[in-house]
Amino acid sequence: MGEEQNEGQFLEGVRVVDLTRLLPGPFATMLLADMGADVIKVEDPHRGDYARYYPPMVGASSAFFQGLNRNKRAITVDLKKEEGRALLERVLETADVLIESFRPGVLERLGLGRQRLSEKFPELILCSISGYGQSGPNRDVAGHDANFLALSGVLYTNGGADGPPQIPGFQLADVAGGALYAALGITSALYRRHATGRGVHLDISMTEGALSFLIPTIARHGAGTKEERGKGMLTGGLPSYRVYATADGRHLAVGALEPKFWNPFVELIGAEHLKGQSLIGGDQGEKIAGELAAILGGKTLEQWEEIFGDADICVEPIRNLDEVLESELHRARKVFFELQGITHVATPLTPRDRRHMPPPQIGGHNEEVYGELGLDADELARLSDDDVI
Fold it and tell me: Tell me: the pLDDT tens digits for 227-263?
């Protein structure tokens, strides 16, 4: 079948110029860098990516920043200066992809708008990540992850039946709605360019990315199923698919929907009379869930783990982060690795055998990258003295 997916750096030879900051863009370019792309992170020479300064600090930059920026090279350039913009265009002459996450219109104001880039670099793939897209009534509106989730409807669906909507435990719209769609779009556009020889502009709206998570939900809603928060088949409305507390304040995630999982599960907990009732919802489902809660709340998590053993029942303990880091599952899959005192997480597309570059210092590759463009030491010194880089 050829090489394993985790052994290949599929994007080797692709150069990505990254103007993004904070989370969505850097996450997307981390994925590309892990897969072998030469990602050149472009930062303002006076401050750089704001994420460099988020606490806690580990060495010269934050743990947050370091977790997102491995395997990249970093240069500085002041895009507010004409000479800086000209210098960026020299970098773009060698690039396949430009990714940015400014507010819509900023690139145009810098003289680097879509039309100019398309004319000067017809093969360049431009990827723009924004909260609400490059057009539409919210084009210029500020927002963060919670706002994108709110306007997509995702936040409305998240939470228990008896409480308010709950913000997820991570930046869902930023990462899944923005970064993942950006990376997928870029790799698809690279494939298309082989056939056409032309670049494209990818307009990635994080709100629309989040909205896409509701495709099945909206399909059911449009067909007449008005699903209430916390009462859907996969959102807590069935006794066979929800979270239950144990006696020691820990929790079990029960996903025993099918009879082949549910029936042995209720046998193991001493509730054989509940066989065949995994898909009952409504008031009767709540009665069943209450009975399960009383039973599962009578023993500790460790006791239930011993009882369940290796049973194939789709019930798992909810692990805290310390436990996740020590997990036999993740250790066996080589998910974690260390770089300069920071624990990094491999993605499903990160080659497990690659040697990782540590996150770059601000402007740490100015001499290297600009040298590749033919700038000598004297020119670099002048640009630095003039605050261009």
Answer: 899 999 999 999 999 999 999 999 999 999 999 999 9
Task: Return the pLDDT at 1.
Answer: 44
Of the candidates 172, 184, 183, which has an alpha carbon nearest to the alpha carbon of residue 26?
A: 183
For residue 150, the model assigns a pLDDT of 98
Q: How many CB atoms lie within 10 A of CB 208?
A: 20
Indicate if 303 and 184 belong to the same structural domain. no
**Integer CA distances (angstroms), 153 to 23, 112, 161, in order:** 22, 34, 16
Asked if residue 120 belongs to a domain, the reply is yes
Relative orientation angle of helices 24-34 and 180-196, to the nearest 10 degrees = 60
Tens digits of residue pLDDT in 273-295: 999 999 999 999 999 999 999 99
Q: Tell the burial category of 282 from Cβ atoms under 10 Å away from its Cβ (0-12, 13-18, 19+).
A: exposed
Tokens standing for 386?
A: 């003039």
Written as one letter, the residue type at 14 is: V
Contact predicate 266/289, CB 8 Å: no
Q: For residues 67 and 137, state if they share a domain.
A: yes
Are 189 and 291 in a shared domain? no
d(CA 219, CA 150): 19
pLDDT at 170: 96
pLDDT of residue 9: 87
Residue 50 lies in a domain: yes
Based on the domain organization, do 139 and 20 belong to the same domain? yes
Q: At which of 264, 289, 317 does a domain end?
A: 317
List residues bridging with 128 in a β-sheet.
100, 203
Q: Which pLDDT score, from 0 to 100, does residue 7 have?
A: 61
Percentage of the chain lying above the pLDDT 70 cut: 98
CA distance 345 to 197: 35
Known catalytic residues are: 144, 174
C-beta of residue 48 within 8 angstroms of C-beta of residue 76: yes
- Could you tell me how far CA 346 lies from the centroid of its own chain? 12
